[in-house]
Design brief:
single chain, Jelly Rolls, alpha+beta, eight-stranded antiparallel beta sheet, 20% strand
């Protein structure tokens, strides 16, 4: 369960580290699930899992990873972080919870090898509604909170996640970024003033508000850095990209998990159109 210490340091730094969030056995199940997926190039599909890359040398993402089996479904409402995420997104007892407690608008596994990284991005300036950090009247109201789970040990040279603590409250653009929010010198966050690298053991998780300036260090070591990311927001949100959960996934999820994956009820039209409309919405 979330503690006062968790709340304090999430508010202060914009992130917290949850040690041993899942068991080693669960880590193995997740890695085995990824290994069972054939190597995909960006744009290729394996069932409902999509190969994707943001840019060159960012590694490969397996989007819609919760479609890859029960071990990934278990992450949707995992007890190690679900109360944290629910608290940080906020909205308890308000109209924000009309559709359900939360919504996952993106979920993926990320694999990076030597030479891969992702540059510094986000930050509280310029302000965006989707990624905002806000605390008012004793409650958090964050637009998006990311759960980043390590599936391999991530130490020096492994390309760990890097953040600029406190930048989720900044009123200015980071001075190492240009007006387009990019760092001209390179793609990794190495050398950015104020940034810290977070080392993790397999099974650890980071929770961070997307308003914090973040990215990764350059992967220098041999081997592969593996993580899983689930992005949570308020239940009235919708998918950032064109992905949708499959009918098969929705059919096998528990009611609680289905509510987080697909909070939106079918459109209310004439009774003879209701089933058809729901099927169209799921398949869209």
């Amino acid at each position: 369960m979330i503690t006062d210490r968790d709340k304090y340091f999430f508010d202060l730094r914009g992130y917290i580290l949850l040690k041993g969030a899942i068991s080693k056995a669960h880590v193995k199940e997740l890695n085995d699930g990824i290994d069972a997926i054939p190597k995909l190039d960006p744009g290729e599909w394996y069932g409902y899992v999509h190969g994707h890359a943001y840019n060159k040398n960012n590694g490969l993402n397996l989007q819609q990873i919760y479609e890859a089996g029960e071990p990934f479904e278990r992450l949707i409402d995992h007890p190690s972080w679900i109360s944290h995420v629910s608290t940080f997104i906020g909205g308890e007892g308000t109209f924000d919870r009309k559709h359900g407690p939360l919504f996952i608008d993106e979920n993926f596994a990320s694999m990076r090898g030597p030479g891969d990284s992702i540059g510094l991005h986000s930050g509280a300036y310029p302000w965006t509604k989707r990624c905002q950090y806000h605390f008012s009247n004793g409650s958090f109201n964050c637009g998006q909170v990311n759960m980043l789970l390590a599936l391999t040990d991530i130490g020096p040279g492994d390309g760990g996640t890097m953040v600029v603590p406190g930048s989720h409250k900044s009123n200015f653009r980071h001075p190492d970024l240009n007006k387009n929010g990019m760092r001209p010198e390179g793609n990794s966050v190495d050398g950015v003033e104020g940034a810290v690298e977070i080392f993790m053991e397999a099974g650890d998780a980071i929770l961070f508000v997307d308003a914090i300036a973040h990215g990764s260090a350059l992967r220098k070591n041999a081997g592969e850095r593996r993580i899983v990311v689930y992005r949570y927001g308020p239940s009235w949100g919708f998918f950032r990209d064109g992905y949708r959960p499959s009918p098969e996934l929705l059919a096998r999820l528990t009611p609680e998990r289905r509510k987080i994956v697909w909070p939106h009820e079918p459109l209310k039209r004439s009774p003879n159109r209701l089933a058809e409309v729901e099927a169209e919405a799921v398949a869209y």
